[in-house]
Amino acid sequence: MATLSELVFYPIKSCAGISVLEATLTHAGLAVDAVYDREWMLVDPQGRYLTQREHPRMALIVPMLKAETLEVRAPGMLRLEIPLGLPDPEHELTREVTLWDDTMLAYDCDELTATWFSNAVGTACRLVRFHPSVTRLSNPRWTGGVEAPNLFSDGYPVLLIGRASLDDLNGRLAAAGRPALPMNRFRPNIVVDGLEAFEEDYVASFTSNQAVLQPVKPCPRCPIPSVDQATGEAGPDPLDILRGYRRKPALDDAICFGMNCIVAGGDGERLVVGQELTVSLAF
């Protein structure tokens, strides 16, 4: 048995996450009070997505769920309230946006919102919201042909990391005379206790009641783990340590940490911090 020890969802892609005690599992990832993980995204004037890779200050944009709005705050700025209700179809503004190789329609938030985020990030940008008419699926090569929908996640509905994997990395960092890293550097949705280090790489499924999470692809890491999520500043990159033992030949020797998962069952099930998960290994 393993234990679900953390749940985090990220209403705005690449901005701060919200740690919660419970969430709803959907085929497209976690949802809290009908707000979905990566439901919003920042794009440049050409409609291309922004992330902490190029704009580490995005870590300092902190969302908070309220009854009818998503409140966002950033250092030195007045808070902004973003309505949770979808736009009236007769008056909605849309634009074409690009995320990796996907180009799709999205709701375009208003000029005041665009100005606020441009000031917060330090570059011209706009906030867009996932449009319900869009279908964006994970790569079927990794899902075994299962249609796994996503909103604005990089490519899979859920990112899961075992606590012991971070402990292993932190032990190696300590041996190199470097400070430990918190889990938020790796921005998972689900953290699991009770596994051996990197055992999540070999899990066929995590189940609880009707919920079934199926790990399908190791998560290649970019420079974002070098960004301190509390300061928005880049520091030493742990990839130099991970490079020595976390290359995955199946991904052209990409350095991987954590597993991308699809939801194989239990759409609408509640996940609760502390609940036990049954682990089935892939061998």
Which descriptors apply to this entry?
283 residues, mainly beta, 2 domains, seven-stranded mixed β-barrel, four-stranded antiparallel beta sheet, 22 strands
The mean pLDDT is 96
Please tally the β strands and state the result. 22
- Beta-strand percent range: 35-45%
Tally of structural domains: 2
Helix content: 10-25%
The secondary structure category is mainly beta
Count of individual helical segments: 4
Radius of gyration: 18 Å
The coarse silhouette is globular
Strand arrangement across the biggest beta sheet: 1-14-13-20-16-15-22
Head-to-tail CA distance between termini:
17 Å
Largest sheet, described in full? 7 strands, mixed, barrel
User: What are the secondary-structure elements, in order, as H or E?
Assistant: EEEEEEEEEEEHEHEHEEEEEHEEEE
Report the uncertain regions. none
